[in-house]
Structure formats: C-alpha cells, structure tokens
Design goal:
globular, Thrombin, subunit H, 34% strand, 28 strands, alpha+beta, Pdz3 Domain, 7-stranded antiparallel beta sheet
Length: 465
C-alpha cells in the first residue's frame, strides 16, 4: 500500500512539473470566440458607384407630388358640350311633306380643360367641343360658367375657350416641353368618367410619338399615367405643377386605359393659343421641302426642295439629312414636325444637317404655308395674291386650285373659283376657309353655305348638303 501511494505521489508531482514548464516556456494568452454562421446568403458582384447621393438625381420615393397636384386641380375644369343634332328621314319627308322627316335631338359630351390665365382663357381638345351649340364649364369649386369658343385647330386637336368670372382664377403656367426627359415624372389631371379632379402619376415614356392610323403626322408626348375617357383636354404637368402637355388620346382596344396615353406638347399648344388670339387662325410654318420616305436611319432626309412664292430658303439641298433643330435631336419626321408646329412663319430655325458625311450648321427662315386641304370635301385652297384681291376688290378669300373628289363639281363649283364666304361669314384666307368648312358636319345633315366668285367674275351662292 505504501508503495502504491508512493507511485501515485510521484505521478502527480511529475504532471505538475510538466504543466508548470509548459505554462512558463510555451503557452501564450488564448482568446476563444464563438462564431455564429450568418443565415443570409451573400453573392458578390461588380460594384460601380454611379449614383451620387449629392447629385441632382432624386430617388423616386422622395418625390413629392402633393404641391403639383394641389396647384393643378384648381385650374383643371370640367367641360360639358351640348350639341343639337339633326336626323333626316327621307320616307317621312315623302309621305308627310317637307320638314316632317327632320328630327332634332340633344347630344351631350364631356371632357376636361385647363385654365391658362387668371382672366379665364381655357385650353382643351378640339374634339371635346367640336360642333357644340353650348359649352358649360364647371370649376373645381363647382361654380358654373358658359364658355365662348375663341378658336380651334382641328389638325392639332387644340381649342381655346373663354369664360368671364368675377374674380381672378387659378391657372397653370406653361413649361417648355422640349426640356422634359424620358423617364421624368408627370401628373395627369382631369375628369375621367365625370369624376372631378382626378390625379394620376406616371413617367414620360416617349417623345415625338406619332400615332398610326391617326391621319395626321403629330408629335405626342407618351406617358404611362392613367388617362381615360373624360381626361381629354386635361393637364399633363411636371412635378413643379407646370403645364407640359394637353392630354389628348389613349391607345386601347377596350376604350379604357391599358398603359399608354398621349398629350399634345405644351410648346405646340401655346403656339396655337397665341395664333388664335392674334390672328384667329393658326399660322403654319414650313421648311419648303419634301421628305424622302425611304430613309429609315436617324434623322430626316430631304427629298425635293421647293419654295413658296417670294420665299428665299436656299439653305437646304436635296439629300441633306436633318439631324438637329434648335439643339433638339431629330430622329424621325414626327420630331421635326413637332418643332415646326411650335414655330411661326418668319421664325429662325437653327438646323444641323449632314451633307456628304459632314455636319453643317444652318439658320433657316421658315416659310408661310399658303395651300390647305379640306379632307371632307377633297378640296385644295390657296391664299389670294395681292393682285387677285385688288382685281375683285376683296379683303380676303381663298382660291380653289384642286377639286380632288369632285364633290363641289356636282354643284358647279370648279377649279379657279374664289371662295369669299363660308356659312354666310367672310373668310380671311385659305386656312380660315378650310377651318370653317371642316367645322361643318355635312354628314349629319347640316348644310354648308358657300359664296364664290366664278371664272367670269360673277358672285354665286350654294348650299352643299
């Protein structure tokens, strides 16, 4: 037993000596941490710090639409169009006598408009007030006024109205629509389905958009802001509450919004308003060229160069490719058309063209369009020359230079006749005559009254039905 305890003591002593030596000569302080595995999966990818938090780029979530909406809803109005339609029944005329087959009925349409001045001028679409016998404007505060039509432009679907209020009205100022960018936030404000003061938001999806099958080459702003029937004539505004467009159309198979809406740019709308106020008709500016429709690359290729009488526009040549107008890139004809529509005859146009592979800058003076076409009658009219005005002792009028579908020829009105009155009102020029003719709905049974001077210099009057 003594031997056993002696061996055990020696073993304990040896272990103590060994442990003491290890601590003295080998061991250092050791810290032990428990690592818990992260449950999230992290994938490394390339990093490009393109976004600068201090730059002008703004996070979409931080944009506040409330100020723009508040400023705009009070200047957007409800437009009620009441028209008296006439329906003719030839069988009733035959059996019951003259006048017994004619039935008149009231047709009501609604849309939107935008007050653009404190004294009550309102912009809307032409199709909102077309053929109206009475127009009622309802403000956001439910006050109602009867509106007067100052003028309208059917080609660009813009009309100008005026109401007389006892107080200054809230209005939306025009912005420069050339400055808006694709991807920029915009608000559409209007009265869809008679729901007053409706605001929707979206972005600018495209600029210079032309609608296929629309008949006219136009230059719309395309957005994805929800627009529905009743929004026509309403405001498209930027986040500062400035007018960048007049909502005009949607692309839809159902008649309701499916993701695309279109607005007339504010630069075009403002130019039309200014023309209607100053001249009564739109002053259309032209470059005096035809376009090569086969050219499919970026830009607009000049086909033939021609000049209106007295014009001097030798800056362009056949084969030139128009690349830029007034610092705005031109990729297609609708973009060029948009720039021209917002200008007046006599305005200067700074143009960059490509000629023989070289970029050249030109300043071009725009010509005045003097030939106009009536689509409803297939009629081509031209302004009278000073010599013709003096010969017939006229202050205005329009000369028939082509009778395409021979509608008027049936009544005896031929090429070379001078139209002096439309619907018993004197016409100033060809544009004025065309506007009056196109605003008469012959297909609805409304007669078109014309006063003309024939080839013998005699005055004749016709009722076209």
């Amino acid at each position: 037993m003594k031997k056993f305890f002696s061996l055990l003591g020696m073993a304990i002593l040896g272990g103590a000596i060994t442990l003491g030596g290890y601590k003295m000569f080998i061991d250092e302080n050791v810290v032990v941490q428990t690592m818990q595995q992260d449950s999230s999966s992290i994938i490394k990818t390339n990093y490009n710090p393109a976004f600068n938090a201090n730059s002008s780029a703004i996070n979409a979530a931080s944009i506040d639409f409330t100020l723009a909406a508040e400023n705009t809803v009070h200047s957007v109005v409800h437009v009620k169009n009441t028209a008296i339609r006439t329906q003719s029944n030839p069988w009733a005329e035959l059996f019951y006598g003259n006048g017994n087959g004619i039935r008149k009925f009231e047709q009501v349409g609604t849309g939107s408009g935008v007050i653009i001045s404190a004294d009550g001028y309102i912009v809307t679409n032409n199709h909102v007030i077309d053929n109206a016998n009475n127009i009622e404007i309802t403000l956001n505060n439910n006050k109602k006024y009867e509106a007067e039509i100052i003028g309208a432009d059917k080609n660009n679907d813009i009309a100008l109205l005026k109401i007389n209020a006892d107080e200054d009205l809230p209005y939306t100022p025009f912005a420069n629509s050339d400055n808006i960018k694709i991807g920029e936030w915009v608000l559409a404000v209007g009265n869809p389905y008679n729901l007053t003061s409706t605001v929707t938001a979206g972005i600018v999806s495209a600029k210079g958009r032309d609608l296929e099958g629309n008949g006219n080459i136009e230059s719309f702003i395309q957005t994805d802001a929800a627009v529905n029937p009743g929004n026509s004539g309403g405001a498209l505004v930027n986040t500062r509450g400035e007018l960048v467009g007049i909502n005009t159309a949607i692309s839809s198979k159902t008649g309701s919004f499916i993701g695309y809406s279109f607005a007339v740019p504010s630069n075009i709308a403002k130019k039309i308003v200014d023309d209607l106020l100053e001249f009564g008709v739109v002053q259309e500016a032209i470059l005096g060229i035809s376009i090569d429709p086969q050219f499919k690359e970026d830009g607009v290729k000049v086909g033939e160069v021609f000049y209106e009488e007295g014009a001097n526009n030798s800056q362009l040549k056949s084969g030139d490719i128009i690349k830029e107008v007034n610092n705005v890139k031109i990729s297609k004809f609708s973009e060029l058309k948009g720039q021209l529509t917002s200008k007046r005859p006599g305005d200067n146009l700074d143009v960059v063209i490509e000629r023989d592979g070289e970029l050249i800058s030109k300043t071009i003076v725009l010509n005045k369009k003097s030939t106009f076409i009536s689509k409803s009658l297939g009629l081509s009219l031209k302004d009278l020359t000073d010599k013709e005005l003096k010969k017939h002792n006229l202050k205005g009028g329009a000369k028939i230079i082509d009778n395409i579908n021979r509608t008027l020829a049936y009544y005896g009105v031929e090429k070379g006749f001078i139209i002096t009155e439309v619907n018993k009102k004197p016409v100033k020029n060809a544009a004025d005559a065309i506007a009056a003719i196109e605003n008469t709905n012959i297909n609805a049974g409304i007669p078109l009254y014309l006063e003309v001077i024939n080839l013998k210099g005699e005055t004749e009057r016709y009722a076209i039905r």
